[in-house]
Specification:
This protein has 15 helices and 14 strands. The protein is of the alpha+beta class. It folds into three domains: 165 residues, GAF domain (Beta-Lactamase), CATH 3.30.450; 136 residues, 3-Layer(bba) Sandwich (Glucose Oxidase, domain 1); 111 residues, Enzyme I, Chain A, domain 2 (Orthogonal Bundle), CATH 1.10.274. The strands form two sheets. The protein has an eight-stranded mixed beta sheet with strand order 7-14-13-9-10-11-12-8. The protein has a six-stranded antiparallel beta sheet with strand order 3-2-1-6-5-4. The termini are far apart.
Length: 456
């Protein structure tokens, strides 16, 4: 017959010198036992990055807890989990091994602590963090089989960490290491990629920079552009219908740009989104529309006419190669004409599946006018996505996004299932069932919340 809690307590009362049951009420012990149960559950990385720092901070009564992962060929330390700092720090705070107190801990593979962090010889200041509020600092390395996997850092405003804290945090780091290894970060499986029939890779986690928070799951689809040379048209005997298609495309584009500008203003992005006014000006340019109409009236279909206009704009810009304004305007005209072509006559060679995770080198206004019509669930962009417009367009699109994903096209293929974690900057190709369950649960909670909202 199993012993009951009451039995143990009664034995403790009768024979305190022989045994003692440590029941609930000791905050530190309760937090440790809670973390042991948590770590034994095989938590996916997307959950570990949030839950582990929160639980560790609670365990040590620390205002800040940060979880760093070693990433890239040069072993950069990237903050992927945190409580205590602004969310913008995640994925953005980066250190070289040996840089800063945290980098020292990883370089020496030994814990490093200090009571006043900014007086430490290795201190690295990040102006946007405001970490000077939490000078009591302890960093421990997270050990892997053949080297460091990352670092675990806790910070407090007062009360130095003692030797018991150092020992316990080091042990906690070992438990976190198992969760990190299970994530199969790309550096750990580099050179071991295996493809199966139908495309795709084994489960692997790619890292980048967070661009828009949120979790989303969908099939990978590469962002595409309309062909440079549209399909040759059959002799046009319905110029009137082509003109109607063209007018409808212009109206849709004009309305969409106006809506995007309003959205940018409401989000406080009016100034960085000022480039949208350029597209409004192009759409309102009577000469451009008149030239397209002339070509359509002369027998060209909409796609051919718009392609001709965009080529003429590029050719004119090239002839004035030193005029940066003309070159940029020509690119905008080319992009807008491509969107108008798709809005007027969808080309199957440039369409996208619905509810997909879009991957590509860049995000453009074309994508907000055309690609967004497929209702993508997330976006992942390569390290080439360096345009100053990219961040603004991602914010306007308003779906989970990760940028600067190294090796994106080397691992992701059309049709692969992908999980985008826009909060931590992760792209999980072929995620596990438990990771998929996290997204599904979040979607269910979101749906329930919407169902409960009063209808207007």
């Amino acid at each position: 017959m199993p012993f009951s809690r009451q039995y143990f307590l009664s034995v403790t009362d009768r024979a305190p010198g022989q045994q003692k049951v440590h029941s609930q009420g000791n905050p530190r012990l309760d937090a440790v036992l809670d973390f042991l149960a948590f770590s034994a559950s095989g938590m996916p990385l997307v959950a570990l990055l949030d839950e582990a720092p929160r639980r560790v901070a609670n365990m040590f009564a620390a205002e800040v807890c940060s979880l760093y992962l070693v990433e890239g060929s040069e072993g950069e330390l990237v903050m992927r989990g945190n409580v205590g700092f602004a969310n913008a720090a995640i994925g953005d705070v980066r250190l070289r091994v040996g840089e800063g107190i945290t980098g020292n801990a990883v370089e020496y593979m030994r814990p490093v602590s200090t009571e006043i962090a900014d007086r430490h010889a290795a201190y690295k200041h990040f102006g946007d963090l405001g970490e000077e509020r939490f000078p009591v600092f302890l960093a421990v390395p997270i050990r892997g089989r053949s080297g460091p996997l990352g670092a675990l850092v806790i910070q407090r405003s007062e009360k130095s960490f003692d030797s018991a804290d150092v020992e316990l945090l080091s042990t906690i780091g070992g438990l976190i290491a198992a969760g990190i290894r299970n994530a199969e970060l790309v550096d750990e499986v580099r050179g071991k990629r295996t493809r199966h029939a139908g495309g795709g890779t084994r489960k692997v986690t790619l890292t980048g920079r967070p661009a828009h928070a949120g979790l989303a799951l969908g099939a990978v689809a590469a962002l595409v552009r309309p062909p440079t040379h549209p399909v040759a048209a059959i002799a046009n005997t319905q110029a009137t219908s082509e003109v109607q298609l063209l007018n409808a495309a212009f109206e849709i584009a004009e309305r969409s740009i106006v809506e995007l500008k309003k959205r940018a203003e409401n989000m406080g992005l009016a100034q960085p989104a000022e480039f949208l006014s350029t597209y409004s000006a192009i759409l309102e340019d009577a000469r451009l529309r008149q030239r397209v109409m002339e070509l359509v009236s002369g027998g060209a279909d909409v796609a051919q006419a718009l392609s001709r206009v965009s080529r003429d704009a590029v050719r004119a810009a090239v002839s004035f190669s030193r005029d940066a304004f003309l070159q940029e305007r020509a690119q905008d005209i080319e992009e807008l004409c491509a969107a108008l072509r798709m809005l007027a006559k969808a080309d199957r060679r440039a369409t996208l599946p619905s509810k997909a995770v879009l991957v590509g080198d860049r995000l453009t206004v074309f994508d907000l006018l055309v690609s967004a019509r497929s209702q993508p669930v997330a976006v992942a962009l390569t390290e080439r996505a360096s345009s100053p417009r990219t961040r603004v367009l991602i914010e306007l699109l308003g779906i989970p996004a990760v940028v600067e994903v190294e090796g994106l096209f080397g691992w992701a293929s059309d049709g692969d299932v992908a999980l985008v974690d826009g909060a931590h900057g992760l792209l999980v190709i072929n995620p596990s069932k438990s990771e998929i369950a996290i997204v599904r649960e979040q979607e269910k909670e979101g749906s329930s919340s919407q169902d409960g909202d009063p209808k207007v």
